[in-house]
Amino acid sequence: MMYQFLDIFFFVFHTCLILFNLFGWIWKATRKWNLLTLSATAFSWIILGIWYGFGYCPCTHWHWLVRRELGYSDMPNSYIKFLLDELVRLNFDAFTVDLWTGILFFSAFVVSLYVNLVRGRSRN
Predict the structure, then answer these.
(1) Where are the transmembrane segments (predicted)?
(2) Do residues 100 and 93 lie in contact, with contact meaning Cβ atoms separated by under 8 Å?
């Protein structure tokens, strides 16, 4: 029962974090938090990725441990691929998903840097 709860928790939390990473820069009140979560994500993907593999995410790692306990064994490397496959019920190409994940993440990061540092500084 605890693993089922954790499976749902990670599904909701991780999905919300991804959406916040993509769109949190829109609202002035959440811009600094958005830059922080994007920076933490980049740190995880790149710096922790040195040891665990590029694109490493602790949320994905912990979620996969939970799903393994629930009997799932063939999980993709990418949480985004998992999410799309689950929601749309199609088998998306992993390379394409990773490419678009990188493009959208980088775009959100650049916009967040702009609204936090460049635009934010010019309004003070």
Answers:
(1) 6-26, 33-54, 99-118
(2) no
